[in-house]
């Protein structure tokens, strides 16, 4: 299973480590990990428009294929590219990002409700909030 349960009393969230992307790859890949907001994790948050929910492309999450909106996949691809990493970033550099569509199990209504209550804290705890307006 892609999602392990979160402990809401510990203010747990999932963070997405986007693996470096090369254009020879078929899919963007990432790994989810669970952390407590109280532990002051170092991460960025992504703010973006989901786009057309019916227009989906594959990505790899925790080694499993998942369908994401084209807009999310494009944002992840951009975030993982060397151009977005900053001058002098090493080839092994990865971005750790909170992304609502991936870090919240969208099929679990109780988790979704609990995580939505934490969103203000999530965004205010992020080192940066990256806004993705689209590939253009």
From TrEMBL:
<dbReference type="InterPro" id="IPR010730">
    <property type="entry name" value="HET"/>
</dbReference>
<dbReference type="InterPro" id="IPR052895">
    <property type="entry name" value="HetReg/Transcr_Mod"/>
</dbReference>
<protein>
    <submittedName>
        <fullName>Heterokaryon incompatibility protein-domain-containing protein</fullName>
    </submittedName>
</protein>
<feature type="domain" description="Heterokaryon incompatibility">
    <location>
        <begin position="43"/>
        <end position="135"/>
    </location>
</feature>
<dbReference type="Pfam" id="PF06985">
    <property type="entry name" value="HET"/>
</dbReference>
């Amino acid at each position: 299973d892609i999602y392990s349960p979160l402990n809401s009393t510990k203010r747990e969230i999932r963070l997405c480590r986007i693996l470096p992307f090369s254009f020879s790859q078929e899919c963007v890949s990432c790994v989810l990990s669970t952390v407590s907001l109280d532990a002051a994790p170092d991460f960025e948050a992504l703010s973006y428009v989901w786009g057309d929910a019916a227009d989906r492309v594959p990505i790899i999450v925790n080694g499993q294929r998942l369908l994401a909106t084209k807009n999310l996949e494009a944002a992840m691809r951009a975030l993982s590219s060397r151009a977005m990493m900053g001058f002098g970033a090493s080839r092994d550099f990865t971005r750790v990002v909170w992304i609502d569509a991936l870090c919240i199990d969208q099929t679990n209504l109780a988790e979704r409700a609990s995580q939505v209550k934490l969103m203000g804290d999530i965004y205010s705890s992020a080192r940066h909030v990256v806004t993705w307006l689209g590939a253009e």
